[in-house]
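=== RUN LOG ===
request id: a7f3
mode: sequence -> structure
chains: 1
length: 137
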Amino acid sequence: MTKPTFGAHPFLLGFDQLERLVERTAKAGTDGYPPFNIEQSGENAYRITLAVAGFREADLTITVEDRQLLIRGRQAEEDAARIYLHRGIAARAFQRSFVLAEGVEVAGAALENGLLHVDLKRAVPEQVVQIIRIGRN
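=== RESULT ===
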C-alpha cells in the first residue's frame, strides 16, 4: 500500500512542490543550537531572534536560497594560549534554516547585545478576479 501524498490530492492542483518543501523543513537543523524565538511583530511582519553570544557580525552570514532562509555562524580560530578552567559558553559553528512562504522577504537584520534579529515582511498579494472565456476547439 502506498502512502497518499499531499500533492496528489485531486483538489490541490499545482501543490506538488509543497510535500518536498515540508520534507526539506523537517531535515533542517534540530539540535537546538543556537536557541531562537519567532515572533509576530506586525500584521504582516515577523522577527526571528537567535542567541549568538560571542559571535561578531563578521562571524555570521544570512542568505536566502530557494525560499529557504539560512543563518550560519562560524567563529575564527581561538588563541591556543588561552587555557579554560571551565567552558560553558558554546562557540561552535551552526546553521539554522527557515523555509519562507511565498511573498515573505527579509526586511533586514541587526546584531545587538548578543542577539541576532532577522526581520521578515509578507507582501500582501492583490486580490485579482479573472474571467475565463469559453471557446470552441
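=== NOTES ===
The chain has two domains: 1-30, 33-137.
The two ends are 40 Å apart (CA to CA).
=== END ===
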